[in-house]
Design goal:
Elements lengths: L8 H10 L10 H9 L4 E4 L8 H10 L2 E5 L3 H13 L4 E4 L5 H12 L5 E4 L1 H4 L2 H10 L1 E6 L19 H7 L5 E5 L4 H11 L5 E4 L7 E2 L2 E3 L3 H10 L6 E4 L3 H13 L3 E5 L5 H13 L3 E5 L14 E4 L6 H8 L9 E7 L1 H13 L4 H18 L5 H8 L11 H5 L3 E3 L1 H13 L6 H9 L4 H5 L16 H13 L3 E4 L5 E4 L1 H7 L6 E3 L15
Helix pairs in contact: 1-3, 2-3, 14-15, 15-16, 15-21, 18-19, 19-21
Bound molecules: adenosine-5'-diphosphate and zinc ion (ZN).
Enzyme class: isomerase
Keywords: ATP-binding, DNA damage, DNA recombination, DNA repair, DNA-binding, Helicase, Hydrolase, Isomerase, Membrane, Metal-binding, Nucleotide-binding, Transmembrane, Transmembrane helix, Zinc
Protein name: DNA helicase RecQ
Length: 525
């Protein structure tokens, strides 16, 4: 058994001030530090810039001995080591750019017990000699930065991260903190499974950025919609995201034609041109970058006042990252995301046609559904967004749906029909099968399960299949039904859903997204 001497949080607070020079913890930090000092393993999910590093640096000092930090980014390791040394903390990094002499010095320092923090790349840590070094040196804490890299479902999978679970076991199940700014549920579950034998304490820091105004709208005439949006932000810096390189060129030209200082940015441009655009954007006011998603990584411009998606973003996660580049200074910033129905259909086709595993497809489908549910959200958009990250919240008052309202109708009976289809089939099926039951389509699967005999069979024949799909997405966005991610994306009914099912509560649904094309251009209220 692990022997832990409880360390008062006072010791940590004193070091926070005396070593780092900070007056107080940032939200979330103290609880994490306390959990680690109390002997627990931790998974910390916190947005970029919220102060994740301190969550292991401070415990490293309080606990003494050696803390090993795994990070995939050499530049980031160097930065942190430099900073820690400036604070007077013995830190070093082992990575592919070290020479033999440097490595020897680090080895000696390790064996002498002189190092407090050692930064290591994941491939280096996975090597047998490294594990042996660390066993000899005695590691007290393992910190795994960018922990989402362990997940094959993430956007940044790194095979080297797969070895970390084994290394951790070889180090005697050393106390561990995994950190990431990526929060979606499949990734989170994957991190826990791959890195920890016993589930850790999970901390999720708020992802809310209240100064960002959120809005989404179906595409009607995209260039005009983009122009109208940009026009309300005269003289301000902003980013317009497009899906293709060609479109960034076209939109930049359009904005220039309308008198704006707009520059295209995509991976197809020569490096000098790209860098020049980026520098202009960073250094001057009132420049608009028209970019593919290649733009923005590591860009830290505090006064970006607007972000416009001229095309549907990749998923909810990237939507959040991309709008998050606005308003870093905490002042009001505006966002608009345009989506097209044909785009949604195309994305669905790409997923079905991709040559990847069934499991991968299932997760991609769920991610797309979550994105569409956000586009078609029947209530506060921020509430829907934060709920996706597992964060409950109240209506925000700063999104298009809170401000303008939507054309809605009493969808209680429709929701009840959809949910009774879920319940009557034992909460074991996904949207397509349930829609077939509702519209009374006796498909092979329906017959095989004898679902044509259910009282629910055909009760929704007054609506088209597309309308029912939208109803499923809407009641999902409203929290009435939940997706079971582990078991084939089947729907289950939540407590809130049961209240509607029993007739204790009503639910409003959006008409405009149910029957796209009908009255969409009308003023919504
Ligand atoms: P993340 O890894 O979450 O993106 P960092 O660990 O790089 O964030 O921290 C972001 C910035 O916040 C750093 O400049 C760091 O020095 C600062 N910071 C961290 N914790 C505190 C604190 N308690 N008080 C003041 N500044 C802090
Ligand atoms: Zn809102």
């Amino acid at each position: 058994a692990r022997l832990t001497v409880p360390v008062p949080i006072d010791a940590a607070c004193a070091l926070l001030k005396s070593v780092f020079g900070f007056d107080a913890f940032r939200p979330g930090q103290e609880e994490i530090v306390q959990a680690l000092l109390g002997g627990e393993d931790v998974l910390a999910i916190m947005p970029t810039g919220s102060g994740k590093s301190l969550c292991y640096q401070l415990p490293a000092l309080v606990m003494g001995g050696l803390t090993v930090v795994v990070s995939p980014l050499i530049a980031l390791m160097r930065d942190q080591v430099r900073q820690l040394r400036a604070y007077g903390i013995a830190a070093a990094s082992l990575n592919s750019s070290n020479d033999i002499e440097q490595n020897r010095r680090i080895h000696d320092a390790l064996m002498e017990g002189e190092l407090r923090l050692l930064y290591v790349s994941p491939e280096r840590l996975a090597r047998a000699d490294m594990t042996a070094w660390l066993r000899d040196a005695g590691v007290r804490l393992l910190a795994i930065d960018e922990a989402h890299c362990v997940s094959q479902w993430g956007h940044d999978f790194r095979p080297e991260y797969m070895a970390l679970g084994r290394v951790r076991a070889e180090l005697g199940g050393v106390r561990t903190i995994a950190l990431t700014a990526t929060a979606d549920a499949p990734t989170r579950a994957d991190i826990v499974e791959k890195l920890f034998a016993v589930p850790p304490r999970i901390f999720v820091r708020s992802f809310d950025r209240p100064n960002l105004r959120l809005a989404m709208a179906p595409k009607t005439s995209t260039p005009r919609q983009v122009l109208d949006f940009v026009r309300t932000h005269q003289g301000m810096s902003g980013i317009v995201y497009c899906l293709s390189r060609k479109r960034t060129e076209e939109y930049a030209a359009m904005l220039v034609g309308a008198g704006y200082r707009a520059l295209p940015y995509h991976a197809g441009l020569e490096k000098p041109e790209r860098e020049a655009s980026q520098d202009t954007f960073l250094q001057e006011d009132g420049v608009i970058i028209v970019a593919t998603v290649a733009f923005g990584m590591g860009i830290d411009k505090p006064d970006v006042r607007f972000v416009c998606h001229a095309d549907l973003p990749q998923n909810v996660e990237s939507y959040y990252q991309e709008i998050g580049r606005a308003g870093r200074d905490g002042l009001p910033a505006d966002t608009l995301t345009l989506y097209g129905l044909d785009e949604m259909r195309l994305r669905r086709e790409w997923i079905e046609q991709a040559e990847v595993s069934e499991e991968r497809k299932r997760i991609d489908r769920q991610r797309l559904n979550a994105l569409i549910a956000l586009c078609e959200a029947p209530r506060c958009r921020r509430q829907t967004l934060l709920a996706y990250f597992g964060e409950p919240s109240a209506p925000c008052g700063n999104c298009d749906l809170c401000i303008n309202g939507v054309e809605s109708f009493d969808g209680t009976i429709d929701a009840q029909k959809a949910m009774s289809a879920i319940v009557r089939t034992g909460e074991r099926f996904g949207t397509e099968h349930l829609v077939n039951i509702l519209i009374g389509e006796a498909t092979e699967a329906v017959l095989r399960y004898r679902h044509e005999a259910l009282p629910t069979f055909g009760v929704g024949s007054d609506r088209k299949a597309t309308e029912w799909r939208s109803i499923f997405r809407q009641i999902y966005a409203a929290g009435l039904i939940a997706l079971d991610i582990v078991q084939h994306g089947r729907w289950t009914v939540t407590d809130a859903g049961w209240r509607v099912l029993r007739g204790q509560e009503k639910i409003e649904l959006r008409r405009d997204v149910l029957e796209p094309g009908k009255g969409r251009r009308g003023k919504v209220k």
